[in-house]
Each structure stands twice: as C-alpha cells, then as structure tokens.
Amino acid sequence: MTAAIKDGIERVVKKIEENTRLTEIGFYSVSAGLLIYACYRKRPFKRFVKAADIPDNFIAEKTLQRGIVSDVQNVSGNGTILLVNHRPPINFPLRSRKTLPVKISGVNIGNLGYGWLETIVKDKEINFIPFSNKGKNVEAQVFLIEQDQPRPIDVGKALTSIGFAKTAEPSSKADSYVKRYLRQLKYLESSAKFHHNGQWANLPEHFRWLRKKYESLWFNLLPDDKKVPALVRTIKKEDEKNKKKQKLK
C-alpha cells in the first residue's frame, strides 16, 4: 500500500513538472511573439529614408518622429523640402547618411519662409507627425525643438503667422486631426493678412483703412486703464511690485 501511494505521488509530481515546463514554454513563446509584434508596429530600430518607409499605422496613429534637419531645398514642383536625418527611438550612430524628405503640410512657403528655415531650422532638432507617406515626400506637421523654449515651435504655424507662408490643401487624407490643423493655419493666415505681415505687406490701401478703423474702434471700447501704452503699463506694474516688496521689508 505504501509503495502504491509513493508511486502515485511520484506520478503526480512528474505530471506537475511537465505541465510547469509546458506553461513556461507557452509563456516565453507568447512574450517573444508580443515583442516581435511590438517591434513590427513601432519599428524602434528602423531609420526612415523615404516616404514609403513610414508604416501606415504611424500615419493613422499620428506617431511622433524625430530627427535633425541637415538641409533645406526648393524642389521644382514640390516646393520647400526639409531633408531630415531621421532618428528612431533606438538610434545607432554609425549609419547611412541618407535623409528623409519632409514637406511641411498645409503651407506653400515663399522666399521669405525659405530664408527663415535656412536660418532658424537648418541643423536643428525637430519632431514631426507624419500625415502622408504617399509620393516622394513625407507630408508632416513639424515642430522645432529649442532648448530655451518651454515647448516645441510649430514651424507651419510660425511661418503662416508672420506671413512667410500661405495655406494650401495637403495631399494627405483629411482626418479630424488634419482638419483641425488646417483651420488653425487659416486663422493664422487671416491674422497675418490683417496685420500685413510678410507676403501680405502690399495689400490694397482699403484693407489698411479698414484695419485702422477696426483698431480705433477697439481702442475706444477699452477701459481707460487699458488705453495706456503697453510699455507704460509694464513700468507701472513693476513699480507696484517694488512698492509691495519695500512694504514687506
């Protein structure tokens, strides 16, 4: 009886060990499969050098990318293109020097804008959200990374707001995110026109007359304390702060 019990216990233990091994194999297989799938989805090692390299799920999910602008070029038929040294999340320094052509979506950049990009953006780090991977260039929303700025600068919006670029319909599919981005660009373009910034400096005289009338009306509606020039208001605020500090002392 004792031998039978001992034999039964050994069989149970052996069965448990076999099941444990199978469980471990299954667990590691699932983990490896998930890791491979994650690498396929996120491409942490992949360096993009042409538009077709960017996966469709990156476009759909608006996956943020980063890189360094190595050059700015005016390409016939394509407008102004940023040549970007793309940097994946896990970047290896010893790689090909091929660059990814990136077109700022939603804008046509003029000569003033080209000079601005050459001066401000070239050789700088950028982030970009790809909107389209069709054609030769990646259409994207581009952000300039500046160390002294609290947040990245949207390059397309900056160019439009100072009148160095005009809005244009992108070739990318207009989903809700892209539509909202285009509305923001058009608002900034209207403001640049109103203030005669950049390319809009030579608008007809009647536009200037309307602007002066609008500013005059707006000024008359302001409270008296707001009619003081901005510099004077700033000086007054500083004086008030200094007086408060002296009282505390």
TrEMBL record:
InterPro entries: C3orf33-like (IPR042421)
Record's GO cellular component terms: extracellular space
Domain of life: Eukaryota
UniProt xrefs under PANTHER family: PROTEIN C3ORF33
Name under which the protein is recorded: Uncharacterized protein
Organism this protein belongs to: Polypedilum vanderplanki
Higher taxonomy: Eukaryota, Metazoa, Ecdysozoa, Arthropoda, Hexapoda
